[in-house]
Amino acid sequence: MVKIKKIELNPITAYLAGVIIGDGHISNSTKSKTDLSKDYRIGIELSGKEYLEYLIKLIKDIIITKSTLRESKRRGKKRLYFLFRNKSFFYFLTEDLRIPNGAKSKRVFVPEKIKNSNLIIKKNFIAGLFDTDGGFRGGGIGFTSASEELTTGTSDLLKLLGIAHSGDKWLNKKYGQIYYGIRIYKKEIDNFLNMVPLRNKEKLEKIKSRFFSHHAELPEWSNGTDHPLSLKG
Questions:
Q1: Which residue spans of the chain are classified as CATH 3.10.28.10?
Q2: Dihedral of alpha carbons 176, 180, 185, 191, sign
Q3: Which of 18, 45, 66, 156 keeps 20 to 30 A from 130, CA to CA?
Q4: What is the pTM of this model?
Q5: Cα 102 to Cα 119: distance, rounded to the nearest angstrom
């Protein structure tokens, strides 16, 4: 019987929780048709190799796994993914943080433990969410989601950080699905980047190129590799 190791909520695990909610998947199936025990599989699928390798390093600093980065092709587009099984991390995500397993796009939300934590935890959670699911929006940057609860919760966290933004929703007629969005105003982008410790270097470079003429305006730790996780308030 595999012993469950208690995984604590800290800046790194809060960041990874944001990543999983943004671009991850938690299994809701059994190991096989003959083995009906729970499958503790967790996956992250991205297009950026350097960033995914960075995430793998973070995960392997927390748990022991022999899993490695893999490649797949979907509709002619190359994607990279990392699949691992770990009972302790699975229960941290699904029991401690209550992140839904299985299909989650409409069901995700900001976990209560994140809402009730300190600002460091909140900032790192937002960072993980934006590094995977954030992007350019309407002349600024922001998020989109099929989950109104996630969008509302993220908006509340941004308000606590004093980051001005707006919200919207629209119907995707092709899929008959309502989507919800957050847009961080252009004038607030430098504030957002100074407050939220992003680590996806490729995404950061795109933001810098579009909105900043001098990269020195951004904090040195914005490349995501040397940010002092436990020190920034």
A1: 11-104, 119-205
A2: negative
A3: 66
A4: 0.87
A5: 29
